C-alpha cells in the first residue's frame, strides 16, 4: 500500500537526504507535498475524479498530535491515482532544492538546474498524455 510517507522517503532519496539529522524536516516536506497536490488539482482535476472530496486532500504528520479537520495522516493510503505519485515526488524534490539555491550563484549552481528540471518534469508529466 502506497502512502504519503513512502512518497516522502522517495523524495529524500532524490534529495540525497537519507540520514538524520535531515536537511529537510518532515513538516517542510509535508507542506511541499500538500502544495504539489494543489498543483495536481489545478493542472489535472481529473486526478481527483471519484475521490468525492470537495477540497484538495492534504496531509499532516501524525507525530504533530491532533490533526486539523480533514487532514490525512501520512501513513494512510495515497488519496489519488498512483500514476500521479512520480510527478508529485519530483515536485517535492525540486521545490525542496529551491531553498538551497539562494545560497549560491544560480548560473554556476548545478542544483539550480536540477530543481528547475524536476519542476518542469512535474508539469510535463501532468499535462502530457504519457504520465
Write a compact overview of the structure shown.
The protein is mainly alpha-helical and 131 residues long.
Distance between the termini: 20 Å
Strand order of the largest sheet: 1-2
Beta content: under 5%
Helicity level, as a percent range?
Answer: 40-55%
Domain count: the total is: 1
Low-confidence stretches at least 5 residues in length (pLDDT < 50)?
Answer: none
Count all strands and give the number: 2
Structural class: mainly alpha
Average of per-residue pLDDT values: 85
Report on the structure:
With 131 residues, the chain is mainly α. Helix 3 runs antiparallel to helix 4 (110-127). The protein has one domain (4-127). The protein has helices at residues 4-15, 26-43, 85-101, 110-127; strands at 58-60, 71-73. The chain has a two-stranded parallel sheet with strand order 1-2. It is globular and about 35 Å long.
Summarize this structure as a short list of keywords or feature phrases.
mainly alpha, 5% strand, 2 strands, 4 helices
How do the helices and strands line up, and which of them pair or pack?
Layout: H1 4-15, H2 26-43, E1 58-60, E2 71-73, H3 85-101, H4 110-127
Parallel strand pairs: 1-2
Helix pairs in contact: 1-3, 2-3, 3-4
